[in-house]
Specification:
heterodimer; A: alpha+beta; Ubiquitin-like (UB roll); Fumarate Reductase Iron-sulfur Protein, Chain B, domain 2; 2 domains; 5-stranded mixed beta sheet; two-stranded antiparallel sheet; 7 helices; B: 3 helical TM bundles of succinate and fumarate reductases; 76% helix
Chain lengths: 244, 131
Amino acid sequence: MNNIRWTIDMEISRQRQGEERHFEVFRLEVDPNEYVLDAIERVWAFHDRSLTFRHACHHSTCGACAMLVNGVEKLTCITPIRTVTADGGKIRVEPLRNFPVLSDLVVDMSSLYSNMEKTNFSQVAPLDQSYLPYEEKPEADEVERLVDCIECGMCISACPGAATSASYLGPAVLAAAHHVYLETGASCLLDLVDSKDGVWRCHSAYECSEVCPSNVDPAWRIMDLRKRIIHQRVSSWFTRKERA
Amino acid sequence: MRLFQDRPSWRNFLRWFIPLKRKTGSWAFVLNRVTALGLLFYLCLHLVMLYQLAQGPQAYDSFIAFAKSPIIKFSEMFVIAGGILHGLNGVRIILNSFGIGVRRQKVLFYSLMTIAAVGISFFAYRMFFGA
């Protein structure tokens, strides 16, 4: 049994409705192999019961515990402490960016969920349609599985484009639209994303794919949507329109 | 419901220019913003200079003397570098938007920046050591 103990400072963002944000520091003794979420729970349990944060599954399935850890989006339930600090070091925990803060580390993600609904995105898909087109697919009939996106919102937090427009759909929603488009071929989905607040808001920073914990690769999907939209537009030049 | 509160913030503004802790794509993104602003500044300066030229032969001569000074030559090198970097970064985005090189976007960026470095070096040599 490994009994290494580290002393670290948890610098946690605190904010109540209508108040300015500030940071509070909590000194903890931790096992470096524990996860950041364990440390946050310990702060709540032994230091300040008023700390608010979201968590549920503790194994990267629900996406609830997504936060900024030392300035980078992480699922805190699968981020070992040893990977983000050292003995005597500090972990700075903040709520996700580009969402309104409800309280401390909790953000309002209702915009993401309501935008996801516009795409008719389903969390379950046939096995062969739940992979990215460039991935090798396993051969199996009549099998379904959960799709990769866990709706954690990390891609939207990391996206510099999302910081520029309040009505931007965001990488998760665009990736969902792409996923459903590949499944159904519904051209209304291309219409949904073909706007300044759709795929054309993307500035090709690829941060969404960098932080995605679940192999969704939103940036690739956004670029593929662009390609398909361009193809559709060019094709329409050579297609005779029927008169009403 | 919208993604974030409609309130401008310095933190969001600075995110456009500080790619620390971010990956290659963000550095490319910031490079494009910085070079675009630099080129825009140069364009404004250029129009002011053209206006000066229209003030008569004396103004023209004094401007040419000023333009030959080392500091202006050095500044022009920045304009050339900005143009090459911004242009080639734009080529990366266009290629990606057509679905070309998306999965190799980092390699594409580094390759184009290598070409940019060669181009900038060529122009620098010509400007400072050429005939």
